[in-house]
Amino acid sequence: MIYPNTFENKIGFNEIRTLLRERCLSSLGKEEIDKIAFMDDMKAINTQLARVREFRKLQEEAEDFPISYFFDVRQSVARLRLEGTHLEEDELFDLRRSMGTICDIVAYLNRCDEDEASISQDGWKHEPVYPYPALHELADGVMTYPQILQRIDQILDKFGKIRDTASPELNNIRRELAKTEGSISRTLYSILRSAQSEGLIEKDVTPSMRDGRLVIPIVPTMKRKIKGIVHDESASGKTLFVEPTEVVEANNRVRELEAEERREIIRILNEIAKTIRPHVPQILASYKLLAQIDMIRAKAELAKLIGGIEPEVGKYPLIDWIEATHPLLRLSLEKQGKKVVPLEIMLTRNKRMLIISGPNAGGKSVCLKTVGLLQYMLQCGLSIPMSERSKAGIFQNILIDIGDEQSIEDDLSTYSSHLTNMKNMMKSANDRTLILIDEFGTGTEPQIGGAIAEAVLKQFCIKKAYGVITTHYQNLKHFADSHEGVVNGAMLYDRHQMQALFQLQIGQPGSSFAIEIARKIGLPEQVIHDASEIVGSDYIQSDKYLQDIVRDKRYWESKRQTIHQREKQMEQTISKYESELTDLEKSRKEVLAKAKERAEELFKESNKKIENVIREIREKQAEKEETKKLRDSLKDFKEGIADIDKQTEDDKIARKMAQILRRKDNKNKRKKEKEEKATDATSLQNSTITQTQNSKFKEGDTVRIKGTTTVGTIESIQDKNVVVIFGGLRSTTAIKKIEHATPPKKEEPRPYMTVGKQTRETIDSKKLNFKQDLDVRGMRGEEALNAVMYFIDDATLVGMSRVRILHGTGTGILRQLIRQYLATVPAVTSYKDEHVQFGGAGITVVDLG
How far apart are the first and last CA of the chain? Predict the structure, then answer.
């Protein structure tokens, strides 16, 4: 029950309804908005709210939901029930588009997610899961007629006009019509040009249309010069429109063909009407879906406008609202660039009745109307503006007494109207009733008015009704302290700034601040003094004490909320850091595991390649000592990289590389001491070789590449290059890279020591396919070093004098690692940055000797 009949007007719901109507797409939705009414069925309310909630979600997630062509053609369709009636072209076009929208909406809302279908323990799949179940319920069972739509598409084009191909007869008629009109046009232009050449008509005159017939505009003095029928004249009388005799018959034929065309179109429309007529009731019923969707969309748009939510409504009466705002006040203040002060209010079984006191213009009435409007909107299935942490229930009755109901016709004074409202409220009140009374007990002598108000309030408490009541009476404030289920509330007021704060605080009664407001307005101080003496100092002092209590409570409440908020923020921060630490530790372990796995794969691959290199060295008759040195060098490098997988940062890899280099330098020093002894024994022989190094080379000389032990014979000399035969391999190299050598001792040839055909083919293939540039950008440290090692080996093998390594600039770590490695390779004579025009520090140029 809603009381009184002017309820919606008093709380402002009429304006809410107007906002909804403005957001409808058609008259269909507006009719549904007009039907919105108060409900007390929990299931129905929650269903309405769920549909709005799902539609808002749908708007965020989907861009292809059909919301076009919401045409109301129900009257036109209903007319088809009569035999012999048909729809005009524009009506049929609107029907086709709106039915198409209905068809698309039904198909969209009936989509289901097969992957999320519920599966029972026995493995059988049950009902499919719909992404928007509440909206799907609307579309479920709605009939769509794709065959009718297809038939209409065969008749109408995309502009809603009858197609030429709608029937063979229509096609023939229109062809003949076009042919006849073309003939008329040609004849008219011929007559027109002839008349213009004779000077009878102006040069810029063109044929025009009058009463559906093509005519020629001429001046009245020339009407006898052109034979024909005068059909019309201009408003000024200076122009006559003449139909030449030559085209009269043709124009008559055009009229006949147009009549035939119209008859054929009507026949076609009657045929499609016969197809639609059996399904008229179902088609009309399907427009209910279109109306509901239009209304739900309007509700969703209003929710966005006012910042509303759709709370889950409980079965029993409950108001536990946080940051609730009056939607109309909010919109009004936003236009002025201001913000509305949110309301926090609670009505429960233990605290059913709230008595609000406070100064005038402090927000008491706004608080009352906010409660009434939001609860009514909620039970009409609309979103309400408040925090998502809020909770809400439903009431069977909402009874209000707001404003002045005095009536001259009914002989009711202001107070009489209030008493009449109290009588009706007491009659209807129960434990599921919400009562809202503004300025309870006013309108008569204060003492008796307060007494009657207290007695009425007692009856409300006996009936366990819920309510919000505003008052200035002290006896009602004291009533709350002595009766269970009744609590005081105060609208806060800043005594120093002398302005209302519009904040509701539950727990203590509020002061009316009458003395302070009177002084602010400017009443004479003598008047204020006399008023204070009349009420007595005890009242003034108690009022001040009450103000101080309210002020102190507000201060400590603010402190408590600040501390609670800080504690919550701190808990969230700690939780966030703990989560991040856990994620970091997990990520670190995953990175280390992947790095170790990758390193093991590289080591396995490296071992295979190392063995291949050693085998090839043996095939090339390399000395055992050199093979051992190479094996030891690779072993040291492998041991160094084995520790790198425990380092996760590039700078740690650099430190490990330095450790490897120091270990290698120590081993080289020990080897050098051993080699010095062997060097002393062969010094005489080497001195002889040194004396001949500066002499000119000639064909047949025995030479070797600097830094190697393999000797060969010069086959030919070409400018600065020479062709040297090493065993069975012919190689071209620069003169400056070779030196004289002692011919090797002649030994009995051993087949297994010669270079095999397969080996030569492999080396020749490497020469042909070798590229001078190596790109290691994007690789990790160990990957890049491994690639550079193989690249330098291949470059030395094929006799390249210069190569380039592309590592990029970045932080410079990769460049440093590569150059540290190059410093340990004997075949590398120098390395440097590329010229700035060709890459600069991002490329290392390596010279091989």
Answer: 104
